[in-house]
Amino acid sequence: MKEFQLSDIKSGSLVSQVRDEKVIFWHNGEECSVDIRIKQLPFFETELLLKRMHDGESVASDWISKALVDDKNKVMFTKKQVEDSFVQTLASAIFDKVWDTDNIKKAMQTKRKKDS
Is the pLDDT of residue 96 over 80? Predict the structure, then answer.
């Protein structure tokens, strides 16, 4: 298990970290992939997005546009560019990576095992 010091967290060491991911999606009946870079957003930003999502607002394109970065860690897309140039399967697959669905599932499974 990786350990952090509160002083590291206070200095922002967790925020804006970038991770490389490969996204697999289906397009025109064919499996496709794209390499992406995801920037970790700060709590304040994700909390606002989560609140909007829980209020029934669609936030996927906004969230994706804030999280995808280029090789210089600069935001690559505007919300409108995501809405206009992504297909649904790609947007869903990328949002799963941005939202980190796999880690949420793993954390829930680990908790269930501990509770058993």
Answer: yes
